[in-house]
Design goal:
This protein has 125 residues and is mainly alpha-helical. The protein has 7 helices and 2 strands.
């Protein structure tokens, strides 16, 4: 089971070079499959150590979306993670053709963080 503290380091792990978002998807799958462990996955509301601003904003957007969907309080650190130049989860600018499509499919919490992904990502199983 992955926790928010694991994600920045896991996203930089060379084994995920071609799939650096696999840890994020695994976190979502763990969240969806193990609701009894969600508090543990949030690590007491502590921010994850390290990570790039983009990685932290992505993790924050995912955590925000999951918490909001499931009626769980959003950890404070999540609300402070935002990118000035909005991007998609893959890093493409949100104002590109692809980016505009992703923004149109994104959950509203993505706007808070400036990182956009398709809403159905939060349903990963």
């Amino acid at each position: 089971m992955l926790t928010v503290r694991d994600l920045p380091e896991a996203m930089c792990d060379p084994q995920f070079r071609h799939g650096r978002f696999r840890p994020v998807v695994q976190f979502i799958m763990d969240w969806n499959d193990q609701p009894q462990r969600r508090a543990e996955m949030l690590c007491g509301g502590e921010a994850p150590p390290g990570g790039t601003p983009g990685d932290l904003a992505l993790v924050a957007a995912v955590v925000h979306g999951l918490c909001e969907r499931d009626g769980i309080g959003v950890p404070e650190w999540v609300l402070s993670q935002r990118l000035d130049s909005p991007v998609t989860m893959s890093g493409r600018p949100a104002d590109s053709d692809w980016g505009r499509w992703v923004v149109s499919q994104a959950p509203p919490v993505c706007e808070v963080h400036g990182v956009f992904f398709e809403a159905d990502l939060l349903s990963a199983r």
